[in-house]
Specification:
The chain is an alpha/beta fold. It is built from five helices and eight strands, in the order βαβββαααβαβββ.
């Protein structure tokens, strides 16, 4: 089964726990190599090698590590030494955008799980990349934070390809215009079936 995605595609990858959604995101990010089939990336009609995909991708996942001993400001400075953010150059601007200005100089070890999720999502969503990959983005978020997340994606998703892996949480994917449903992951079979 072949899929092709272009700028402004917002794709929901739907499936139950263990179906392979996170694995698919890791393959799309270039972090893992598929055991079957292939993935190719292009940017402005030029092929992008797997070693260079990192520069074009931002990713937020439950297993993504932040530096607990670093403050929010230090985490921002570390991240932006690798990737720039869209229109944000200062840690204080970033903290305002993720609604955590009051804790800019606190270490992340003092943050709640919801605050940590805001940091992860903010760094990924605001990053100046062509591909945005989000794995179960509403985990640890309350209703207000889920609204914030949706607004942030809409604000920064223009001219990007966005993939959202979700356990069919409609609150995570209201902006998606395409869906892929992973019915069952079996190494010997084809794991992906086309959704609506």
């Amino acid at each position: 089964m072949d899929y092709s995605f272009e700028k402004n595609d917002k794709v929901a990858i739907l499936g139950s726990n263990g179906s392979g959604k996170s694995t698919l995101l890791q393959i799309l990010s270039g972090y893992l190599t598929p055991s079957e089939g292939s993935v190719s990336w292009s940017n402005r009609h030029r092929q992008v090698g797997v070693a260079d995909v990192f520069e074009s991708v931002s990713l937020a996942t439950p297993y993504m590590a932040l530096y607990d001993e670093f403050t929010l400001k230090e985490n921002f400075e570390f991240f932006t030494s690798f990737k720039q953010l869209k229109g944000i150059r200062k840690a204080s601007e970033f903290a305002e955008e993720i609604e955590l200005a009051r804790v800019l100089n606190k270490p992340l070890k003092e943050f709640s799980s919801g605050m940590r999720q805001r940091v992860k999502l903010g760094l990924a969503i605001i990053a100046d990349t062509d591909f945005l990959l989000l794995d179960e983005p509403s985990s640890h978020l309350d209703a207000n934070a889920i609204k914030w997340y949706n607004d942030l994606v809409i604000k920064y998703a223009e001219n990007r390809i966005v993939f959202v892996a979700s356990n069919k949480e409609e609150s995570e994917i209201p902006f998606c215009n395409k869906r892929i449903e992973i019915l069952d992951f079996k190494p010997s079979g084809v794991p992906v079936s086309e959704g609506r």
